[in-house]
Amino acid sequence: MKAPTATRNRTGDWSIVRRLFRDYIRGQWPILAVAVLCMVVTSALTGALAWVLDPLIHFVFIEKNARMLLILPPCVAGLIGVRAFTQFGQDAILNSMSERIIAATQRDMFKSQIRLDIGALNSVHSGELIAKFLYDTTLLRTALTRGVAGFGKELVTLIALAGVMIYQDWQLAAISVLLLPPVAWVTGNLGRSLRKFSTRGMEETGVLSKSLSEALSGRRIIKAYNLEDHAAKLADGRISERLRYLLRAVRARAAAVPSTDFIGGVAAALTFAFAGYQSLHGQLEINKFTSFIAAMLLAQQPVRTLSQLWTISSEGLSAANRIFAVIDAKPAIEDKPGARPLTSAGAHVHGAVTFENVSFAYASGADSPAINDVTIEIPAGKQVALVGPSGAGKTTIFNLLLRFYEQKSGTITIDGTDTRDVTLQSLRDSIALVTQDPFLFDETVAENIALGRPGASREDIEVAARAAAAHDFITALPLGYDSGVGEAGSKLSGGQRQRIAIARAMLRNAPILLLDEATSALDTESERQVQEALARLMRGRTTIVIAHRLSTVLNADRIYVMDRGRVVEAGTHGELLAKGGLYARLYQHDLVDEDPPSLESATP
Ligand SMILES: Nc1ncnc2c1ncn2[C@@H]1O[C@H](COP(=O)(O)OP(=O)(O)OP(=O)(O)O)[C@@H](O)[C@H]1O
Ligand SMILES: [Mg+2]
Fold first, then answer.
1. For the chain, how many structural domains are there in total?
2. Closest ligand 1 atom to the C-alpha of 386?
3. Is the CB of 548 under 6 A from ligand 1?
């Protein structure tokens, strides 16, 4: 995240404004029209208030007209009353409009981010993204409420007041115009530095929220290793750094009003000097001059606000720019044009899976690919096990089959169709995945299981939970199926989380089942129960098991042994043992006397 936006040119700014208008503001035009009407009336009334001093002084003070004394003061009160009403209308409408615009941008940001592929999601820290969601949208909201509202209103007010000034005394008005170039210069400069500092402030907000979210997710390690001071010091540094930029932004923002006030003051002094000169030479009418001065003093406020708004909108525009960058992010893995569902015409997915000379590396320049020329063939309904040391590339096989990432070369097919030719939705619909580290959402047990098939009935959920040997522990929870599981399932044990994940997969009822060490966190007894459940689940489904327990491997139709990204051996348990290769070594070294035998400890 660099800060090129600080020196962004005007065309860029205009395209941001145009896009804001096109995508978010235009849809609300009826209500915006009402707001603009209120705005114009408010401003015109402000001009009228200045103008009314002219007849007031002329008729009441100079001509001593008593009837006018009865008419004009109530008129002033009436004007102020109506102006209060239109002012309210304008503020209420514009504020609710910008809240709606912010909500719309947040919806778009979320939709676009959640659709990104896993590689892109991994590249940004979640904390930074959250900061963008909250901090940048706040900047944009301020710019919208104060910017759109203020800009229109103050500009119209200024024009109305300038009209009064020119009408009353064009020569004096011309002097006031002298104040505009220096105001523009000062505010332009302030806007630029404000934009720079608030961009940096935003980046630091991202870093801060990143360390906050890390400290919270790592709380157990922080406590166990006495790292509280270390964490506090890190956070402290980031908070100070952020403060540094925010304070500079505060100074730039705060300088806008006093500097325009100063320039305005100089212009006022000049006006008085010139008016005094005219008066000495008998050309000045006091009623006109009073009205002029009233208009000029009233005009100070819009000029002041406009210069402030300029700086605020600079900040808002650079925030909008960052928001649009989030919205425009495109997933690298998408349905290709003309992609069809995996099952055409309602046919059933059988689930035959093949990998043909597939290679893949996570980083484009990596010298050792995660998967290297892998060929695997799994007939529909068969069980296959992947074994091998840690880092061999087993989980990567799943990532590629699910199209979380795209292979660099080779072909992956399901039922003979290249997975790149089918829609992502139909592909993933036909697969149920149970991961190494099952993730639960901070919802109830029942809701977490139902994620396998949204809309599933309570009966279906219970059947799935029983099949996953989870029913007994769930009913023992305080609220049974309605108990919350805590953040990421933190109120449950590892084995309980795993059984809920298995129940979720059972409910999904997909033709292809991927188990990534799905029973690693279970004790012997629950593992036995879950194994039975899994055996039931696997029946008739294509299953790929990343296994570390021998029982699963023994029953597999075929075992693929992986090492450093390659398939080094394949065959049944008996064949592989007879061969005396890596599998036999893993088996003899570490597994032979274990009960239940485990391949996990074969990891070097
Ligand atoms: N998201 C990622 N980004 C970059 N490299 C990765 C990523 N995930 C895995 N790798 C690398 O790819 C290689 C294969 O990893 P993989 O997760 O497939 O191993 P594995 O066989 O499942 O190991 P384990 O038994 O420990 O789970 C490893 O060298 C790993 O460092
Ligand atoms: Mg793995």
1. 1
2. 21
3. no
